[in-house]
Design goal:
Blueprint lengths: L11 E3 L8 E4 L1 H10 L7 E5 L4 E11 L2 E11 L6 E7 L5 H11 L4 E5 L13 H19 L6 E2 L5 H7 L5 E5 L17 E6 L7 H9 L3 E3 L8 H15 L4
Parallel strand pairs: 1-3, 6-7, 6-10, 7-8, 9-10, 9-11
Antiparallel strand pairs: 2-5, 3-4, 4-5
Helix pairs in contact: 2-3, 2-6, 4-5
Length: 249
Amino acid sequence: MSEAPEADGAPLFLVDEVPAGNVLTVDGAEGRHAVDVLRLGVGERVRVSDGQGLVVIGSVLAAADSAMQVQVLTRHDVPAPDPTFVLVQALPKGDHGPLAVDLATELGVDRVVPWTAARCVTRWRDDRVDKGLAKWRSAARAASKQARRPRVPEVTEPMSTRQVCGMLADVDLALVLHEQARQPFTKVDVPKSGTIAVIVGPEGGLTDGEVVAFRAAGAHSVRLGAEVLRTSTAGAAALAALSARTRWA
């Protein structure tokens, strides 16, 4: 297996497991999308991945009855990105949560942590956790396909402020986006490897207690710029800025 796939623009299909062998079948929802929506034909180039870094580049042998047969041309193990990006996202209202995950996935996030901040308008009660997580994970999967990412970001169980603070002990840099912060993002020394966490508050903003707690856990309060961004877009903006200084450099 080679280390990285060719960037040929071929569509990506995600399956639970990529089987061994020279020919594989893509069916179910992915097969229907390939045949009924994209209307792929014989000979067209495609990618098939397990969402965990294994990706096959192949050629369509047949496409009919909501299933696609693919001739395997090459197999690749794509290494995990370095540094690793973690987005701690306060629960936004409505569809802004899946939007935040969608944008963050396209811009390289590796793990998303739903955060039950004090001022969240949305509350995932016991009977709503599974539904909320399903929407966020579906958004991560769909955005991975759009971005041709062979690794689908993990969306964890929701965390409290205390749990997030405990998690920060294992990261190399933690940034809290705060419009009142004195330190601009551009002045932060960003590591080239390791784990970087970005914490985004809710529509109502961070409480003083949350800022103090995160600071005590080692996080830095920073501002991206003069504008106050929506909670659904702030994380993506920060990830793009981080990528420009690390992965895209």
